[in-house]
Design goal:
219 residues, alpha+beta, Glucose Permease (Domain IIA), 2 domains, eight-stranded antiparallel sheet, 16 strands
Length: 219
């Protein structure tokens, strides 16, 4: 396991804060040991929490030409047929995965394919499970086209705490299945929009592992 590059700067600043708190507590609060220990303990808890948030575990990626794998760790919060207004302008099956602050927040490509469409949208910061988060929050939209011409839309959505979406792809890039394409900080959501004839392989509230859980299978 390594630490994701998105966390390096924040961890340096957090570590500096922890050192400053410990130094100050020892210097100015030695006569109040319970206060000193409480401050030091709290600062260490904050550092460890941020450290685990940016963890980057090695994964054996599930590979299959017709398999749609989970783009993120988290919990399945939406499985429904919806109207997709940005790209498809028609009905699609939507599967959404909510990432809490304790999940790994790396986003992985659900299929192998060509980035046919990509767009960043500034927006609001509604809670990630809000019904309008998919269309009103800060988000990115990426459409991947398989070698067989099937298209899958992947949408990164910022939540109330997640106010920094990072992406590492452009239109006409090619992604391998399970390849990292982005990162969202501190709680968020990823939506998948699939063809109507795709077979969904997960259930509501099921936990997912990015790059490993098979979310659906293409016809």
């Amino acid at each position: 396991m390594t630490i994701h590059r998105e966390g390096h700067r924040m961890l340096i600043w957090t570590l500096a804060m922890v050192i400053a708190v410990i130094y100050g507590a020892n210097l100015y609060l030695s006569h109040l040991p319970w206060v000193s220990y409480t401050l030091m303990g709290a600062s260490l808890v904050v550092f460890v929490t941020i450290l685990q948030f940016f963890r980057n575990p090695s994964r054996a990626i599930e590979v299959g030409a017709k398999k749609i794998i989970a783009p993120a760790d988290g919990k399945v919060v939406v499985i429904e047929e919806v109207e997709e207004p940005e790209y498809f302008h028609g009905k699609r099956k939507q599967v959404s995965i909510f990432m809490s602050p304790i999940n790994v927040h790396i986003n992985r490509s659900p299929i192998k394919g060509l980035v046919k469409y990509f767009k960043y949208h500034p927006g609001k910061y509604l809670v990630a499970w809000h019904p309008k988060a998919s269309t009103e929050n800060e988000r990115t939209t990426m459409v991947l086209e398989t070698e067989c011409g099937q298209e899958v839309l992947v949408r990164q959505i910022a939540g109330a705490l997640a106010k920094r979406i990072k992406w590492y792809v452009n239109e006409n890039d090619r992604l391998d299945q399970g390849e990292e394409f982005g990162f969202i900080k501190f709680g968020s959501r990823v939506d998948l929009f699939l063809p109507l004839d795709a077979k969904v392989c997960v259930e509501m509230d099921q936990k997912s592992r990015g790059g490993q859980t098979v979310v659906a299978e293409l016809a």
